[in-house]
């Protein structure tokens, strides 16, 4: 099974590149953000819990996020692999994901980080907010999410680097060129 973590700050292009990778490698996409939005839209118990947390620009507690991921993986027993988008965001989450995957005789195959400058991120998300109107793209929430990434989430990279699973790709430029860089790495797995 090909299990990938696509890593990068808000606005790095994870969603765009995930769509292309899913098509090429027939992977099941697991985006914690998408899962949260579905639960919120459907007004599930989980959706009601996470709605305010996300609206405030905070991270959803690990226990809720991991339970959702496990449920999503179990729903797809015939999958050729998974692409994790927006998760893990902390070393504790990475360890929990590794433990869960090990319990089903799987593991993370590789982690690809999209490198994008803070200036580029701000421009991209301002544009996205105009189009989508996503609550978590509002300027104050965005600033908090980007700060969260650079203060906490970035520390997940050394965890995977120590396992020899980390690769970095320049996330600025033409979408197809970035995709080409990603597939060159993934094809080696």
Structure write-up:
With 189 residues, the protein is of the alpha/beta class. 56% of the residues lie in helices and 14% in strands. The protein contains nine helices and five strands; from the N terminus they run E-H-E-H-H-H-E-H-E-H-H-H-E-H. It has a five-stranded parallel β-sheet with strand order 2-3-1-4-5, with helices on both faces. The longest helix is centred in the middle third of the chain and has 15 residues.
Record the SSE blueprint.
Elements: E1 2-7, H1 14-25, E2 28-31, H2 32-41, H3 45-55, H4 62-74, E3 81-85, H5 91-103, E4 110-115, H6 118-132, H7 139-151, H8 156-161, E5 166-170, H9 175-186
Parallel strand pairs: 1-3, 1-4, 2-3, 4-5
Helix pairs in contact: 1-9, 2-3, 6-7
Nutshell version of this structure?
With 189 residues, the chain is an alpha/beta fold. The chain is built from 9 helices and 5 strands.
The largest sheet has its strands arranged as 2-3-1-4-5
Estimated helix fraction: 55-70%
General form? globular
Beta strands, count: 5
What order do the helices and strands follow?
Answer: EHEHHHEHEHHHEH
Structural class category: alpha/beta
Count of DSSP H/I helices? 9
In whole angstroms, the N-to-C terminal distance is 10 Å
**Mean pLDDT across residues:** 86
